[in-house]
UniProtKB/TrEMBL annotation:
Protein name per its UniProtKB record: Olfactory receptor
Annotated ranges, domain G-protein coupled receptors family 1 profile: 41-290
Organism the protein comes from: Notechis scutatus
Transmembrane domains' residue ranges: 27-51, 57-74, 86-107, 113-132, 144-174, 194-225, 237-261, 273-292
Family to which this protein belongs: Belongs to the G-protein coupled receptor 1 family.
Keywords from the UniProt entry: Cell membrane, G-protein coupled receptor, Glycoprotein, Membrane, Olfaction, Receptor, Sensory transduction, Transducer, Transmembrane, Transmembrane helix
Membrane protein topology class: Multi-pass membrane protein
Location(s), subcellular: Cell membrane
Upper taxonomic lineage: Eukaryota, Metazoa, Chordata, Craniata, Vertebrata
Gene Ontology terms: cellular component: plasma membrane
Length: 305
């Protein structure tokens, strides 16, 4: 009888960024422009790396993968946001919500792993130049990239399975504009303690371990650079790491703000405000950061034009 009385939720209602129709249409125009610029910016990086022989080095190889991940990430979130803003209807099926969570979580995890690989690449280039060619051969590059593309989907699948196995009997409204695992898990009617522990462990593996690798490699880079006597060497080392370091700060800064800073009860829209930054703003900034002062990219773009 208890099983019969439980109503299973078949769809969720995303409250979105705004409830007023004029604001929704204005946001539609802005986010559509941001989405197109983000996709075009990252697509340009991929094309330039592929067609310019001088960019066929590990740093740009991993950068092209990062750009591809960014395109997949924004495509998993923004088109649905745009649809909801245009129609004014935030209804999303449970299946589509699950797919969106899985793809977005996978892409985010892959970015985390790839950022650690890129940091390791910079460490080898600056601190171990004599073995760099061997340590970052084409075979090694492929292995690192493949590891990112395999490990992240597996870890994300475990998290999503933990979420899908829960019972959802209402309410079905979500104070967000996309489906995010922690937000949806709060709606579960069943005991979520084990699922939360599993997700926490996987989160530590997918976020904290790559962050530890990045901090360690940059610690070694700073130590090595501090012993350089040549100003030219210092400038070169700084210029090759600056863009990557800014992207790392943006990526992990938003994660810390989202999951580690205590939320105020008086600010129910905290999750949405932070999410706007890493869903909309950061993917647009990343290709700009990597190309703004990159002379190799400028030269390749000029050559293509």
């Amino acid at each position: 009888m208890e099983a019969e009385n439980v109503t299973s939720v078949k769809e969720f209602i995303l409250l979105g960024l705004a409830s007023q129709r004029k604001i929704q249409l204005s946001l539609f125009g802005v986010i559509l422009l941001v989405y197109l610029l983000t996709v075009l910016g990252n697509l340009l990086i991929i094309i330039l790396v592929q067609i310019d022989v001088q960019l066929h080095i590990p740093m740009y190889y991993f950068l092209s993968h990062f750009a591809g991940i960014e395109i997949c990430y924004v495509t998993s979130t923004m088109p649905l946001m745009l649809t909801h803003l245009l129609t004014g209807n935030g209804v999303i099926s449970f299946a589509l919500c699950t797919i969106q969570m899985y793809v977005a979580l996978t892409m985010g995890s892959m970015e985390s792993f790839l950022l650690s690989v890129m940091a390791y690449d910079r460490y080898l280039a600056i601190c171990c130049p004599l073995i760099y060619a061997t340590a970052m051969s084409k075979q090694k590059q492929l292995q690192f990239a493949l590891a990112c593309w395999v490990i992240a989907p597996v870890l994300s699948a475990i998290c999503v399975i933990c979420l899908v196995c829960q019972t959802y009997c209402g309410p079905n409204w979500i104070n967000h504009f996309i489906c995010e695992l922690p937000v949806v898990l709060k709606l579960a009617c069943s005991d979520t303690r084990i699922s939360k522990l599993v997700i926490l462990a996987i989160g530590a593996l997918g976020i904290l371990v790559p962050l530890l690798v990045i901090l360690t490699t940059y610690g070694c880079i700073i130590y090595s650079v501090s012993h350089m006597k040549s100003n030219v060497g210092l400038h070169k080392a700084f210029s090759t790491c600056a863009s990557h370091l800014i992207v790392v700060i943006l990526f992990y800064g938003t994660i810390i703000c989202m999951y580690m800073i205590p939320k105020s009860a008086s600010s129910p829209d905290h999750d949405k405000q932070i999410a706007v930054f890493y869903v909309v703003v950061t993917p647009l900034l990343n290709p700009i950061i990597y190309t703004l002062r990159n002379k190799s990219i400028h030269r390749a773009a000029s050559k293509m034009l």
